[in-house]
């Protein structure tokens, strides 16, 4: 089972999240591909409107 929790605000000391998002998408895509998930995956809106 997978649970979702709100961990609060995450910051990266060298780059803003906007710059980290493309790499996060590549990492997530690789994980899903290796798990056998094929095709596009619907995205949910950010928690509490945060990105």
Automatic annotation (TrEMBL):
Q: This protein is called what?
A: Glucosyl-3-phosphoglycerate synthase
Which organism encodes this protein? Answer: Corynebacterium urealyticum
Lineage runs: Bacteria, Bacillati, Actinomycetota, Actinomycetes, Mycobacteriales
């Amino acid at each position: 089972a997978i649970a979702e929790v709100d961990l609060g605000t995450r910051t990266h000391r060298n780059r803003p999240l906007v710059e980290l998002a493309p790499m996060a998408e590549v990492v997530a895509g690789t994980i899903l591909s290796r798990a056998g998930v094929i095709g596009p995956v619907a995205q949910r809106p950010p928690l509490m409107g945060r990105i």
